[in-house]
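The protein record passed on for reference:
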Amino acid sequence: MDLKNRLNKNLNKITVSAIRLFDQEVSTIPGIQKLTLGEPNFFTPDHVKQAAIKSIQDNQNHYTHNAGLIELRQAIADFYQEKYALKFRAEDEILTTVGVTEAISTVIYSIIEANDQILIPAPAYPGYGAPILLNGGEIVEIDTRSEGFLLTPYLLDNTLKNSPRAKALILNYPSNPTGASYSREQLAQLAKVISQYNIFVIADEVYSELSYSLEGHHSIAEFIPEQTIILNGLSKSHAMTGWRIGYILAQRELISEFTKTHQYLVTAASTTSQYAALEALRNGKDDPNVMKKAYIERRDFLVKSLKTLNFQVINPAGAFYIFAKIPEFVSLNSHDFLLDFAKKKSFAFIPGSAFGKFGEGYVRISYASSMEVIKSAMSALDDYLKEYLN
């Protein structure tokens, strides 16, 4: 009996993430050193780990409320009030999720129907596409390469005018893969356009605490709260990728609906991880600063090194990625170029093609790695390009 043809036909539209596929492809290379994944090379702060241990010792090992511990939701509300001057009620405007990945799926499954159009500034993180396609939606990519990887009001308005079935815009800032972000004024201008259309804004702010601007991070929810759905979490800010804690902030009417989807996907986030997140938000507000200082140093070194090697680079405003244009003298596509580099020099980056058609011709380098590894990688890239030219 062949049941494969009984599966959801939309599964044919998606594949495993090209980021993961390339990472797996190069993992078999002897001695490979990878600057591929968005995995901080820092450890979760000790006080956060101790809080998790205490929760286990105190037998806090049962289900929490579907939306998460009320204490954690209050800590999230306090955090957003203190850091970004945004008010959310802990009891009904915050939903704790299993990482931002589940937050993405929960929101998309809750709002997208067949043939709905979802606008995404590109190049973009590929994790948004799969749940959209599985739900029968259509992805509308907006090419931002000529604008320094930033969505402009003109680009947005023009795209919306030509997308009659648009239901949502996904805005990720600081961005994976480009590190680009928006000033308060830029967000205000985008919000003016969005307010003229009956659409949601899914604001993925998971890198908000890794914003390098002196102005700091701002949320578009400051201008259009009734249209904005904020996604955030602890993975990047507190080096807690494996703890899998994210959260959604939105109007009460939306959170009540998202909770239905969330409940049937996962029931609730891990109780132990929630207690760890509670400690991180209550007593670890400054934890990201040490990491951010190191990331800025690494970023600056990479930007200077890559420009010396004839890559075109836009200085990232946040996150921990460089998205650099491959020199014109390289004739290979981004996948083949980096696979050849990995095989010959035992260092790996992610090809830009992993981030959609507008990412081809670029490489993404994660500098969530040690400076020692980064320096060695740049030296190896220098040697490789010299050999390539000869």
User: Anything to note?
Assistant: Residues 4-43+287-389 form a domain with the Aspartate Aminotransferase, domain 1 fold (CATH 3.90.1150.10). DSSP finds twelve helices and 13 strands in the chain. The mean pLDDT is 97. The chain has two domains: 4-43+287-389, 46-283.
